[in-house]
Amino acid sequence: REAIPQIGKLVDIVADKMLAGGRLFYLGAGTSGRLGIVDASECPPTFGVEPGLVVGLIAGGDGAIRKAVEFAEDNPDQGWKDLQQYRVSSKDVVVGIAASGRTPYVVGALKHCRENQIITGCIICNPDTEVAKYADYPVEVITGPEFVTGSTRMKAGTAQKLVLNMISTSVMIKIGRVEDHKMVNMQLSNEKLIERGTWMVMEGTGLTKDKSTELLMKHGSVKKA
After folding, report:
1. Biggest alpha carbon–alpha carbon distance for the chain
2. Catalytic: 130?
3. Catalytic residue among 42, 146, 195, 214
4. Under a CB-based contact definition with an 8 Å cutoff, are residues 107 and 134 in contact?
5. Residue 28 CA: distances (Å) to CA of 49, 73, 136, 176
6. 73 a catalytic residue
């Protein structure tokens, strides 16, 4: 709750950049990196945006999603190298995710972004951190000591996941991918979602279920139907 004003400022700038043709990058190591990838990967099916609009990067590459890559987070230049593979530019926003606020992979990436006039944000769980120093729009959710000391996948990870949900959902609302609290641009990738889409069309039009399903499948999305 205390971080909502910070989240709001970050959401506003990300939405503005996206509407102007930019992208959102999440960048982190370990649990933080995995959480960013989860949030990024859920944007296309939920909101119907192209896969490259929200990008999640993790220290150690895709192999680190399932298995920890030792010392990958300690290279202060690798985050910037990973971003360059996507031709990151001043059109984009880069959000570093680091519970401790001192992960070299994240610190280095944000520092390089600053030097190249790329807007930066961060999600951290400690006050007065190195990561925040290089973030134009820091989001600080101070969760305190963990039940298992140092295991930031717990309180910090949960808080980060909530903030990521708030950022992506709010941004998608602001760029017009949600209407009346409904996922009107979702991908119709399974029977459950087709059923859900049918009910949305029924509710919006007053048509029968069969006619709503027919329109939905013909046009490919709730919004178009």
Report:
1. 58
2. no
3. 42
4. yes
5. 22, 8, 17, 28
6. yes
Catalytic residue among 2, 50, 70, 73: 73
Show the DSSP H helices in the chain as ranges. 4-19, 30-47, 78-84, 104-115, 130-133, 155-174, 191-205, 209-219
Q: Which two tokens stand for residue 159?
A: 């808080």
Backbone angles phi, psi at 182, to 5 degrees: -115, 145
Handedness of CA 102, 162, 193, 180 (dihedral sign): negative
User: What pLDDT, in 10s, does the model give residues 128-173?
Assistant: 999 999 999 999 999 999 999 888 889 999 999 999 999 999 999 9
Cα–Cα dist 109/190, whole Å: 38
- Average of per-residue pLDDT across 88-94: 98
Nearest Cα neighbor of 184 from 169, 202, 197 is: 197
Measured between alpha carbons, how far is 159 from 37 in angstroms, rounded to an integer? 16
- As a whole number, the mean pLDDT across the chain is 95
Please, are residues 186 and 222 in contact by the beta-carbon 8 Å criterion?
Answer: yes
Please report where in the chains the tokens 């709010």 appear, as a residue.
170
DSSP 73: G
Model confidence, pTM = 0.92
- Residue 70, pLDDT above cutoff 80: no
- Residue 81, token pair as written in the block: 């190298």
**pLDDT value, residue 157:** 95
